Amino acid sequence: MKLFMKGMELKDPHCALMVGELSTDGRLGEPNMELALPAYWQAAEAGVAQAQQRLGYHYNNAPEAIRDVELAAQLYKAAADQGDDNSAHNLALMITRGDALDGDLEQAKHYYTIAAEKGYVAAQQNLAALIANNAESRSDLEKSAYWFEKAAENGSALAMQCLSNIYARGEGVEKDMEKSEYWKNLAENTEDPLLGERVANGDLSDVWVQDGLKALFAERYNEAIAAFEAACRSNNPAAFFYLGQMYEDGIGVEADFNTAFKLYVQAADLDYPEAMGRLAFFYLVGDKVPQDFKAAANFHMKAAAQGLATSQCDLGRMYQEGIGLDRDLPMAANWYTAAANQGNALAQMRLGQMYRFGHGVDEDFGKGIVLIAEAANRGLAEAQYEVGMIRLDKGQKLYNPSIATHWLSEAAKENYAPAIGQLGNCYEHGLGIEQDYKKAAECYTIAAKAGIIGAAFALGTLYENGLGVEQDYREAGKWYEPAANSGYPSAIYNLGRFFQFGWGVTPDFAKAFELYHAAAERGHAMCQLLVGQALLIGQEGTPVDETAGFAWMLRAAEQGVVEAQDEVGFRFLAGRGVAADAERAEYWNRQAAAQGHPRAQCMLAYSLIRAETADRNSLVEAAKWLILAFNQPEKLDEQLSGFINQEWQNVCSRLSEADINEAQQQADAVLAGE
Nearest-CA neighbor of 319 among 336, 306, 304? Predict the structure, then answer.
């Protein structure tokens, strides 16, 4: 109740509705209408049909001194116009009594029809009677017979008796004494669901439900259906629910979602939490019924209030993600906690994630891990995968690849594709398990076929390099393609290489450039370099564009690509395609020089030697960079070697032997990794 009160204070209409419900039905003690009415009004004014219905009932059935039929009718109409069957039926009753809408019988028919079409038995029966009593044509009698038959099929003994009379007289139907006798006999042996309440003690319907469950588990489906139907005639909510499951799943009967849905509605009308949870699921997913987040939240609220863990968990997600409810992380955590305390594994995992990252709760990494581990131990594949990934994180104290592969394997047994893909990664790199490229390829194939993009890319690299599979560029490209189509930058880059060099495809640099450009736009540093190079030199017919080319080089340089840093430094120094800037040239040449790029080392030395502020220290540093460049002969062409010799003579002419020795020591320290 405290949880709903808090939500009501925050103007959450669904929480206000639940405060009203709990204050009215006595589940928390004596009914408290002083608390219930303001709560219902808050929800009703926010458009919650169920609250409008509850208020309509209150004002229509209040003691005469405070009864307000006009207000009741307004409230019923507001709810009925939203499709609430109970309100539609009650409003129609008021109209026929002359208490609403000026006693307009056409309006009464309209609202009875709303309820009747939703399977509301009393509305079907009353609509049939209203049409029959005001029939002006055979068409009216046919409509009356139709609704009497619907009510009879839904268990109304009175409708069965009326239908028997209709067939006996041939009113709106072909006269049929056999059908008349059938409905008469059925009526005599039927306990009308519209009559009275179930007996509190010794209710045989509970026995029938148990018999039905025993027969269901023993796969004696006809017996199960008969038992559940018998219990349904006594309005047993569990019977409606279990029979609904049989129709939904096609167990012992032909699958029929519409029948299942109606049975769930009947169980929900009797406050059966599992049925309300199922209806909430249908409205949340919007698969076989129109998606309605508001209805889903309403059903989940009612079921969660009765302790249904799955509804509590789903409410947590709805609050967490703002689905049909205002996003409220603390409220999400509260509902996850309620479900987690009942052992709901999914709620435990989601609550654990909230504690790990401090979303809606105070951050508590340890508590988060414990909750996720509990969910994993309960067999939730998603949680097992999560534990595996935590154990693979080298930045965590819990890093343990062996334990990681255990949990990933457990999740893989449940065919959880992300875990299968990650297990492939462990096999490929020997993480917590013996390296095995063949098993890696097997795992990647399963995960890739299930749509795991990272696995598709990894499988492509195995085929490209012939690891665990025969080298096959075409097969590699086949797997790179779905990853590339999903925007995976490295896959786009690899496909670009295939087109550039003609691996498994016809060489096509224009296509390669297009792919490189797409990956560059997604932040792929190497592709930014390649696009920049192509634009700067007009590679293989690419139109030269030094401005755009330099811009891409700069983006690659900012991501640490040494070749790009060298090129940017050189162009700032030489003023090629960009205004000369000695300071920025030195910055980028220093970045590339520190990564061992020989030309950048030479250019940095060149700048230091010619700086107006050059002193002994800067000249010693210049000598150091020249020594480091000279020690990479495999990377030097004739022109760069000549440049190094020229600058070496220049700097040596300005330094003493001791200074040159110091430069050598500094270079040796760099080479030694000091």
Answer: 336
> Which residues, including other chains, have CB under 8 Å from residue 613's CB and lie 6 or more apart?
none
Chain centre to alpha carbon of residue 258:
27
Domain 205-270 has CATH 1.25.40.10: yes
Distance CA 429, CA 463 (A): 16
Q: Nearest CA to 311 among 344, 354, 360?
A: 344
Residues 6+ apart with CB under 8 A from 34: none
| Residue 189 CB-density burial (10 A; 0-12 exposed, 13-18 middle, 19+ buried) | exposed
Given a cut of 80, whether residue 108 has pLDDT beyond it is yes
Task: Judge residue 503's burial from the number of C-beta atoms within 10 Å of its C-beta, 0-12 exposed, 13-18 middle, 19 or more buried.
Answer: middle
| Backbone φ, ψ for residue 99 (5° rounding) | -95, -5
Domain ranges of the chain: 2-135, 136-192, 205-270, 619-674
Kindly state the tokens that stand for 634: 């495999």
CB 444, CB 475: distance < 8 Å: no
Task: Give CA angle at 23 (17, 24), nearest 5°.
Answer: 90
Residue in this structure with the two tokens 């609509």, named with its chain if needed: 127
* Two domains, one topology: 2-135 and 205-270: yes
pLDDT band at 39 (very low <50, low <70, confident <90, very high): confident
The DSSP 8-state label assigned to residue 544 in this structure reads P
The whole-angstrom distance between residue 8's C-alpha and the CA centroid of its chain comes to 27
Domain 2-135 has CATH 1.25.40.10: yes
| Residue tagged 């995976």 (tokens) | 488
Q: What is the mean pLDDT of residues 512-537?
A: 96
Q: Residue type for 385, please?
A: Y
Residues 322-378: pLDDT tens digits?
Answer: 999 999 999 999 999 999 999 999 999 999 999 999 999 999 999 999 999 999 999
Q: What is the pLDDT of residues 433-447, one digit of tens each?
A: 999 999 999 999 999
H-type alpha helices, 559-615: 562-574, 582-594, 598-610
Q: Please answer whether residues 214 and 227 qualify as being in contact, where contact means their C-beta atoms are separated by less than 8 angstroms.
A: no
